Amino acid sequence: MKFTLPFAFLLLTAAPVMAAEDALVFESKSGQKVDAFHGSFTVPENRADPNSRIIDIHYVRFPATGAKPGAPIVYLAGGPGGSGIDTAKHERFPLFMAMREFGDVIALDQRGTGLSEAAPKCVSDVVIPMDRVVAPADRNQLLRQAAEQCAVFWRAAGFDPAGYTTVENARDIDALRAHLGAEKVTLWGISYGTHLALAAVKEMPARIDKVVLASVEGLDQTVKLPSETDAYFDRLQAAIDLEPAAKTVYPDIKGLMRGVHARLDAAPVMLQVPTTDGPKPMLLTGEVMQMLASASIADPQTAAQLLMLYLAVDAGMTDPVAGLLGRFMSPGAPEEFRLMPLAMDIASGIGAERLAQVEAEAKTAILGDVLNYPMPHLAGALGLDLGDGFRTAPQGNMPVLVLAGSLDGRTYPFEQHTAVAALSNVTTVTVENAGHNMFMVSPEVTQVIAEFMRGQTPQTTQIVVKAPPFAPRM
Q: Which of 38, 89, 178, 270, by CA, is between 20 and 30 Å from 395?
């Protein structure tokens, strides 16, 4: 559906249409049930286009249970591309329920995600060979070719990639607030959800009550600094050193990883990766191991598994790598993308100064420049870049709670501090030995959030949880 009259567009932008909510029984994956409401509201796909089509944004509302509920609490999923509604069905369900003490809890499916996703997945005709060494420049050119091909595909299907940016996403939050009839909202996010929350702080500061952020990704931190990833491995080594059996096996994890990368680059190993269509050849190189590592270090539990994989490869055993690769990729398959995750990251982008720093650090960093693949390799693709103005840190004096895991391998403590440094009312609680997904690692995390939501100063600035065992399980 399209509105071609600018006047109609202005009316829609100023006052989103109220949509009736439908009562439902929401059931978690563990079988717990609760009464809730499903609702939706409409917004322009691209507010800069007077002829923009109109899209639906869906949510589930869990009514407040407290005697004096505050502003609605909007959960912002990570990714980008995660579904807030789906998140509420899984292990965080108890936390969603606990948050109802303080207001209605809104599990939001951001534009282009979950029930709000209308754009089809794009399968390009570009294949990046995996059975031979491909120069990084050639690979990046093929990757960009695939992304641009998908942009053409989506535009031909009626979807505007320029509508899938974090700024548009943030403006949806204000539209949701108006739709709910609320003066303010509280934002509760993790990972990319914090990136979105910080953008909303810039877009609608007077209409935000409180902010709860876990694993913060700053507005200029879509691409992480390789030096900070190296520092993460130092923290991981320090945790390993506290476990004598693990320290014996892993006296130098950086040395182990660099050694494996160097040997594979000098003599790549041809794998037979199991797929539903039978085994597929794939060349195991140092860069492939770097990509595996990048996908495995978010939490210390998966980092421990990654180190066992490096031990195996170091001993000449590559079958475990082939088995793992077969679980999430098919060598020889064409490149494919979802619109929202691709466009959001590209549009948030990276400034010239940070890009130069990333490129310089990547030359000697353990994981090179692949931690945030396909960024920065696709920077500026699809004609998207929100610019340096977007990437400046937000300012404000609303209460902000930051929860940071000391063993987070995706968003790093120093960078998290930098991301919120211009906000004047921040409380930071470090969760020692926790990783990126730390909401459910300890009841103390829920307790700290509850204290903050009550307007109290959390009684601790540090929560200590037990690190996972790092010694290989034989």
A: 178
Cα angle value 379/382/384 (rounded, 5°): 65
pLDDT band for position 302 (50/70/90)?
very high
Q: Compute the mean pLDDT over every residue in the chain, rounded to the nearest whole number.
A: 95
At 362-406, the pLDDT tens digits run 999 999 999 999 999 999 999 999 999 999 999 999 999 999 999
**Angstrom distance (rounded) from CA 103 to CA 84:** 17
* Phi, psi dihedrals of residue 107, rounded to the nearest 5°: -90, 105
CA 359 to chain centre: 22
- Tell me the pLDDT tens digit for each residue of 160-195: 999 999 999 999 999 999 999 999 999 999 999 999
Q: How far apart are CA 109 and CA 87, in angstroms?
A: 10
**What residue type is assigned to position 59 of the chain?**
Y
- What letter represents residue 146's amino acid? A
Burial of 230 (C-beta count, 10 Å sphere; 0-12/13-18/19+): middle
Q: If you write DSSP's letter for every residue of 320-380 in order, what string do you get?
A: HHHHHHHHH--TTPPPEE-HHHHHHHHHH---HHHHHHHHHHHTTSTTTT-TTTTTTTTTT
Whether the Cβ atoms of residue 92 and residue 76 lie closer than 8 Å to each other: no
Q: How many CA atoms lie within 13 A of 332 on its CB side?
A: 13
- The answer to whether the CB of 160 falls within 8 A of the CB of 48 is no
Distance, CA of 21 to CA of 181 (rounded, Å): 13
The C-alpha angle with vertex 409 and arms to 406 and 415, in degrees rounded to 5, equals 70
Whole-angstrom distance, CA of residue 368 vs CA of residue 227: 10
Do 183 and 153 touch, CB atoms closer than 8 A?
Answer: no
Exposure string (b/e) for 441-453, b if CB count within 10 Å is 16 or more? bbebbeebbebbb
Amino acid identity, position 381: A
Distance of CA 439 to the CA centre of its chain: 15
Taking only the tens place, the pLDDT of each residue in 260-288 is: 999 999 999 999 999 998 999 999 999 99
SS (H, E, C) 363-391: CCCCCCCCCCCCCCCCCCHHHCCCHHHHH
Contacts of 8 (CB under 8 A, 6+ apart): none
